[in-house]
Amino acid sequence: MPAISxxxxxxxxxxxxxxxxxxxxxxxxxxxxxxALSTPDRNLATALVLGVLRxxxxxxxxxxxxxxxxxxxLDAEILIALxxxxxxxxxxxxxxxxxxxxxxxxLAKQAGHKFASGMVNAVLRKLKAxxxxxPEGTIAxxxxxxxHPAWMVERWADAYGLAAARLICMHGxxxxxxxxxxxxxxAEAEMREAGIELAPGELxxxxxxxxxGDVTATAASTEGRVRLxxxxxxxxxxxxxxGEGSAASAILDCCAAPGxxxxxxxxxxxxxxxxxxxxxxxxxxxxxxxxxxxxxxIECRLADATALKEDGVFDLVLADVPxxxxxxxxxxxxxxxxxxxxxxxxxxGRQRAILAAAxxxxxxxxxxxxxxxxxxxxxxxxxxxxxxxxxxxxxxxxIGSSLEGLCREGILTASGAERLRNCITPEGxxxxxxxxxxxxxxxxxxxxxxA
Length: 451
Hints:
This protein is an alpha/beta fold. Helix content is 47%, strand content 14%.
């Protein structure tokens, strides 16, 4: 009986759990099973899980075409074994063909499908021989070739053009750039001494791209002097944390977990009292542990942001709201398999309620930053427009002046500021598009309470 590597067995178990809707891949990849693996096995298991989820739509089409009955519905155990083998054969050049095929066959056998093992073997051998490039000329062809749902790609092409849709799709098929935030000037030297190779970030002077090395194994990471955080996410907090004329003394972070943006708000406003809200008790506990070094400066509050009672209390409110996450498909590829177009209206309803509460909570003349990691207008421009048109005593403030201020203050790089000017929407908000920068996709709008 051929042995199955620990990495492939872990990847198979995670993909089965995701397929059955039992959990999310990001949670499982941080779980005990994966953490118990050696570093090489952990890296391989992660690559297999995320790679299969990224390419699943196209893999299924390729595999179905090789079945004796192309429309046959396969048991989940067989389907996952086929997807794992197919991904390794087509996308991982360093994996020996024999290992990819033989271990996929053995996974099917050990899952109780001994009689299907011959089919798994035959299909994977045919796949390797018949694979080739797929056309991308039309929207439908692009969606299949880049393994995205056609309805998503159609929306992006309609909203931003086919060229932008292609960039979004290509970004969604690549491993995200690993970016860290340096808490101070000494942190970079500490990282280099630990053998971590860093390069400058694209946008922010405090951001670095990790070229090589395991950041999480360093004391600087475990003790909070260096934090893993997407550069677009950092930019949201920098825009929010920048004072207009004077530093904020009272700040509300409406949907704060996991706490990375909260920490930046605290860094940029060292005298401020910060209330960090989170509606999930588990996520609140994780955030509280992450920011415990801040002492009592930050109040962690278990609260639903739609039900906030404060009126005119805060100088600054950050409403980084829960969303569809379509700007993060490279980092969270399974979103494309779970999300339905009808989910957007449900998300938008909650987003409008959070933004309305945020605008009530801020004082007259105070600022609210609304942000999502979504590419969908229903969750972005349309939410802002609906809330402002619905009686909120606030106005949209063009974000360009904030970018210029961040540049003058040495927080935003000059090249980053120049490139970001081209990302300002006609309404004056900021949209980071995947593929334009090595960041997740973000929408950021700045508002001021007027009465």
